[in-house]
Give the backbone structure.
Amino acid sequence: MAQPTPLFNRLALIGVGLIGSSIARAARAQGAVREIVATARTAATRRRVAELGLADQVVESNGAAATGADLVIVCAPVGVCGEIAKEIAPQLKRGAIVSDVGSVKTAIVRDMAPHLPPGVHFVPAHPVAGTEHSGPDAGFAELFVGRWCILTPPEGTDAAAVDKLAAFWRMLGANVETMASPEHHDLVLAITSHLPHLIAYTIVGTADELAEVTRSEVLKFSAGGFRDFTRIAASDPTMWRDVFLANKDAVLEMLGTFNEDLSQLTRAIRRGDGEALFEHFARTRAIRRGIVEIGQDSPAPDFGRAHPGLPDAPLPRPYAVSDET
Amino acid sequence: MAQPTPLFNRLALIGVGLIGSSIARAARAQGAVREIVATARTAATRRRVAELGLADQVVESNGAAATGADLVIVCAPVGVCGEIAKEIAPQLKRGAIVSDVGSVKTAIVRDMAPHLPPGVHFVPAHPVAGTEHSGPDAGFAELFVGRWCILTPPEGTDAAAVDKLAAFWRMLGANVETMASPEHHDLVLAITSHLPHLIAYTIVGTADELAEVTRSEVLKFSAGGFRDFTRIAASDPTMWRDVFLANKDAVLEMLGTFNEDLSQLTRAIRRGDGEALFEHFARTRAIRRGIVEIGQDSPAPDFGRAHPGLPDAPLPRPYAVSDET
């Protein structure tokens, strides 16, 4: 196959954690950009990015990264994106596209847009993908394949810029959806991502503080369901602190509905109302089926977790069947 | 390797769903028993068990299955185990071991023990393993490898019988733990299994009933965390109805603690208390690490979910970089 022509000459990544480093790897693997310039907040991360060869240039400041870039993607916790926009604004070249990867969009538009100069195209983006691991070593080129990337361009954004960023994400394997309203994005993600994380963080904390159950018991018997929650609750604390601060209203609204539903199931348990429980438990299977059908989760049981083989099992002597038993 | 001598001459399985059929497959693969007799509630399941060749004999009644068996394992929802014990009691041979696989142990002891005749050894068991799928086709021989099986023999149970059942589960690859108190088992499992399921069932129901977010949006953007919960919420409704009815007190106690913790995090969100959120989110990573370290979950990111490769990505023409940009 002929080498694809790059979409952008120079991609600047501001922040190179799980998401930023996955973008770097995928953009390079796909030939989506000619050159990658990267920066990170700490010297240790910048050094690691250089060691991993994730970028053509690693620079020390956000301004230096943005200079001359055609596409700038801010891959930092939501809470610092406004400040970064302010810092890079003077260096942005006319016609550049500025984007982000934040899990919240209303706050991003509110915090970043006012700093960006005219002639620069601001196209907020949210790739709905990730793992529980963080940092530049955790990324991989396939992270976005088959996942959705949501764009929320403010009204009046240049359509060509939106299309070009959409093409970039498609080259990385993502499906692209454009939402006119960042508020709607935040409501949708409050239920499909933020509330699940909040609940997982809560229950893992609850389990760890019980007086009657030891931590060793919690760990050993976690395969009963609990371990699934610990994966999500191992996600980056800074990123998630910022998500909840920035998407407070939508999260509180979803929490209200969740609490009502939990009270209803609690009441059914207290009253021994088996019919109500069965009816609820039977309904939720359809959602799982739908997710697997559209390719958003593995059809393999247990997420396709590996199962080691059976042990060689020579029978312990005292238990051998004798004829008299 | 020499063929191992079987631990039991005849194993009777009463119920052949995910767990029962996995026991059948593993016991046969390991040569743990000489013969397997199975029965199931419905004719359709009995037919399927015969088709799959899971047992040497498929019989129509619980009593017929128990007749002449050295080990009887009741693999049925918790709510019907008492009735089954009553049915099989007259057929049980002297010296037989009767066990189960229920996720609740206090109710099992209360419901089954009174029916069992003297000379029969009752050793309740709970293999903490499973998937979201149900039925005889869903089982596999490796299901119990590396997982824990908890035995809760009532005081005074014959030690040799307990040891022999423990040896059986070890042949199937499980680790075995004996707990003196079924009440303690129920408290531990309330937090490591029952509450996680209740919460997963709740949030999946909540997401499905929102007025502002469509089901299609919930499915598409589920990779943000929600999809993990849908797996658990796809578990067998009958089994789980019975678990919550049978372990009401422990579940309600854990729910109380969970609700307090959730209120505290909600308050932190409402007040914009980033420090409290960060502090909580940073603590829960250690639990995940502990679970992976003791081999109760995969160290691979995202449970080791498969990631398809990057697409062949010829560049869409209109976006090619030209010199003037």
Remarks:
- DSSP finds 13 helices and nine strands in chain A.
- Chain A has two domains: 8-180, 184-294.
- Strands of chain A lie at 8-14, 33-39, 57-58, 71-74, 97-100, 121-122, 125-127, 148-151, 175-178.
